[in-house]
Please model this.
Amino acid sequence: MKILDQYIYAIGKKLPFNARKEIKTELRSLLLDEIEAKYGEHPSQDQVEDAIREYGSPREVANRYKSSNQVIGSQFTDLFFFIAKIIVFALTVAFTVIFIIELFTNNLTSNDILTGIGKILFNVFNASFAAFGWLTVVFILLTRFSKGDDFDMDEDWSPKELKDIQIGPEGESKIESAITIFFILLLITVINVAPQLIKVSERTFELSGMHLGHYVQLDVFKSYLIPLTIIWAAEVVYHTFNLFTGKSKALAIYDVVLEIIGALIMLSMAFNMALYTNYQTILGYRAIFMLVAVIVCFESIGKLFKFFKYYVVEK
Amino acid sequence: MKQKEKIIENLTGELKRGTLVLSVLLNTDKPTYGYSLVKSLQDQGIDIEQNTLYPLLRRLEKQDLLASTWDTTESRPRKYYQISPLGQEILEDLTKQWQQTNDIMQKMLRTTKA
Model:
């Protein structure tokens, strides 16, 4: 029965190498027993095909003989994603540091700075894919050569680890905090090294055909760099604590105070007319500062309300 | 209705899968080959397909619960399986577990019916 031999051969190609010969011999014997029991010693081609069809495709049959069909074992899934996140974070930090060093050591033009920021994102994206490829290969090998359920990330977990958890309103997610830290550090660096970018953006806006209602007075703008840098650095501290220790009452108070100070700075920038020249209409950076001020004010009120609700009233 | 039937089919399958190992160990006290074991189990009311049983036999052999020998004297080579000494020990424990579980379920069913 040629078709049976072809069937066994096709199954064999998908079987683990070390057990292939024995499984094929056994399968042949078992299938012949079945075919003979159903159709006698001289079955027709169609009858053999029916028996094979009922047994399953070569891939299905081979998979039943494999101990696990998973590329990466389920016991490694959490570790895989944990390491993947670390990789992205580490690459982001690495490329950002490289950019910051370039910023301080080379005379970069405004265009170079903007291109550099774009390059960070591109390089992180590119390098992450290569890193994920290697990570996947390592975990495939780990799954292949490990003994199944040996690995347990929570093997040493104990209820004692719960004692530092504070129950309260949900804080920012860890990913959100990590991304915020990265962008704030970038913003602090760029705005302090190249505050003239604000004028570049105004020129770019006008080149698009729209007429600005005012222009930012760069000297006055520079006087805001110190308070802005301080408040943003304080935000980095907040998000760092959120990343490693999670939300707490002290952190919630710190967050509310930051929001209020941030709102006051933005309101000052929105209403300080010395910051603007050739003032005709609000169209320009003043509109942006006002919008941000409104958003930050609402956020401050929201956070103050949440604080009183969770830490004062419900307590 | 179709969805209900599918759910019943899946859950019944899970229920049956839980008793398969015990059924196999109980029916391999004498050397038996795969096809013959399928027929024997089916005759006793255990609804099992060949393509499920054969990999199971191999897995139990890997776990040392079954021992195997090849018989090459007949028209084609056949692999015979028989319960091993370790398999006997496991069978005794599994049987106790099964009886306990059965008693518990019977109790629950009587309570529910009442």
